[in-house]
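Handout for the seminar on molecular recognition.
Each group receives one record of this type.
Step one: identify the two inputs.
Step two: read the structure output and locate the region that could contact manganese (II) ion.
Step three: write two sentences on what you found, then compare them with the reference statements printed after the record.
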Amino acid sequence: MKEEMPLLWDHLQELSRIGRNADGSITRFPFTEEDRQAEALLWRYMEEAGISVSRDAAGNLIGRWEPADGPESGQEYDARPLVAGSHYDTVLEGGAFDGCLGLLAAIESVRCLREEGFRPARPVWVVGFKDEEGNRFGYGMIGSRSMCGKAEPEGLSSRDESGITLGDAMRASGLDPGRLDTCRIEPAAMLELHIEQGSVLEESGCTVGAVEGIAGLERYTVRIEGCSAHAGATPMGARRDPVPAMSRWILKVTELARQRENCVATVGCVEVRPGACNIICQSAEFSLDIRSVRDADIREIMEEMAHFEAELEHTERVRITRTLEQALPAAPCDGRLREMAERICREQGLACRRLMSGAGHDSMNFSGLCPIGMIFVPSKDGLSHRREEYTSREDCQAGAIVLREMIRECAAGAPEERE
Ligand code: HGY
Ligand code: MN
Ligand code: MN
């Protein structure tokens, strides 16, 4: 089958070579040399697609496609941009499709529409969002948060492993984190193509997912302080060991999440100190990433964990502190944009189904500002955030075509103005 967007796959392969590790995974953290190389490549792709490119104060790459007859045409002109894009940073040892597919597909969609001679009735902005994952500093989505006026100053003081703060890294990259307020936009709609990162589409034999909503999330650092002592000479009853306390904490939150549908809890980072086999630990510090399509689930579980922590402090004679690092409410996707995606899939002969997104995405920050339209394509074996992350060339092409047609329709007039 002749591909309608032949450059998409090649660009995906070329971008994936930046930050590639020996084991085939990709680590491309924000405000690093890899990030700078990726930015330069994307900048070139956007310019070659006929889009004028700039960088905002948060480091987002913005490619603007302005209508030929803009405000000076005297016509009724809605300057609110249609935004389409995704992120281009990766998690630690991640894959080649997460974020990048959506951004490259948006660039190729504009190239196609321009080459066809399509004339948008409103500005179309292709955006490469900065640091969606938050894997380097721990505070994610600084780019899309800033664009939506939702960045929190404390996020700038989050630090990476070498102690560099997000704010310092931005300054070192020629940005001014004091000007994040200048990133704020008034969008007409936000469209994002993304890999599913789960196995719902693959298991249901569908090529496209019309996303109904994006789960909300909260991220915490939990620290349990005990008292280090000799592993052999200290009787069990005399110990203040943070590791059994941590284990009980993790089992409890896991059990509470299991009891609720579309609710997940993950402990992805664990650090114990001092960390020798014959020393009872002094402290245990670990992360919690908890998500649900119902914000109330997260609230109720964390309230129950607060009570459990008081109990643990008493029985295990330890001190527990829990710090909220990040919170994002669940974001519904726009029904009319979802129906538009479903109709386009029917017109294109693509099997499509509705689903929720357990993963977080830049689009969720646009909730409350404008309609959000999100479409997924299948992830092979449901794998993501690892080198095996893969989506077939055909499915990438199919998702990009649906995105292109959504951009065409939305650029012809904002979704909320469409009857
Ligand atoms: O963590 C997430 O859901 C996304 O990949 N940042
Ligand atoms: Mn991701
Ligand atoms: Mn992503």
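Reference statements: Residues 295-316 form the longest helix (22 residues). The CA atoms of residues 65 and 202 lie 35 Å apart.
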